[in-house]
Amino acid sequence: MTTIVLADDHHVVRQGVRVLLEAQPAFSIVGEAADGHQAVRLVTSLRPAVLVVDLTMPGLTGLEVTRLVRQHAPETRIVILSMHANEEYVLDALRSGASAYVLKNASADELVRAIRKVLGGGRYLSPPLSARAIDVYSERCGAVSPDRYDTLTARERAVLQLAAEGCNHRTIATRLGMSPRTAEVHRVNLMRKLDLHNQMELIWYAMRRGVLSVEEE
């Protein structure tokens, strides 16, 4: 039996994915998460064969969830669900440790195929994405300056997401278990590393990176 954890902040989406996956005799949904932190806790505890996670999640993004799961439960294969048919998003997902990238407008059969492919040790990308396109994009990125986002620490990435969502230093501190002063220092550091100068630039950057997006449903 293939055990699966679903992570998406929209209950309707989770319910729909659960129904289509549980129609497969060999699949068993063992847990659901509505935010990134809960997703990491569930996977670390349950050790499912597969995590199906939305790219845009509250608390931690799907990319951050992917990185943490790869660290703490490396045997779990990760399938990213996303509305973004953009090679940069796909590359970020693969760099973070995802094995599959499935678009949200894909058919039910396609998600099932993706899960089966990663269980066999393969990689799956939704059409019109292609492995060759990602390889070409990776090569191009390798010839330019390193991605500034990669210089951020895990804490700075968490602060980036919460700051982009409009949280102040005290709220960020409470959510992440740190002092307001530490939260402020992290924000100053990430702004410097990303060469951002105000809140609007921070929000636009977060949206371009998939850390923050408009409502999908």
Report the structural category: alpha/beta
Mean residue pLDDT: 86
Morphology call: globular
Number of helical segments? 10
Q: Largest beta sheet, briefly? A: 6 strands, parallel
Describe the structure.
Strand 5, helix 5 and strand 6 (124-125) form a beta-alpha-beta unit. This protein has helices spanning 11-22, 36-46, 62-72, 87-96, 108-119, 131-142, 154-164, 169-176, 180-194, 199-209; strands at 2-7, 27-33, 50-54, 77-82, 100-103, 124-125. A 6-stranded parallel beta sheet has the order 2-1-3-4-5-6, sandwiched between helices. It is an alpha/beta fold and 217 residues long. The protein has 10 helices and 6 strands, in the order βαβαβαβαβαβααααα. The longest helix is centred in the last third of the chain and has 15 residues, at 180-194. It has 2 domains: 2-141, 3-Layer(aba) Sandwich (Rossmann fold); 148-209, Arc Repressor Mutant, subunit A (Orthogonal Bundle), CATH 1.10.10.10.
Short description:
The protein contains 10 helices and 6 strands. The chain has 217 residues and is of the alpha/beta class. The chain folds into 2 domains: 2-141, Response regulator (Rossmann fold, 3-Layer(aba) Sandwich); 148-209, Orthogonal Bundle (Arc Repressor Mutant, subunit A).
Question: Which helices and strands occur, and which strands form pairs?
Answer:
Blueprint: E1 2-7, H1 11-22, E2 27-33, H2 36-46, E3 50-54, H3 62-72, E4 77-82, H4 87-96, E5 100-103, H5 108-119, E6 124-125, H6 131-142, H7 154-164, H8 169-176, H9 180-194, H10 199-209
Parallel strand pairs: 1-2, 1-3, 3-4, 4-5, 5-6
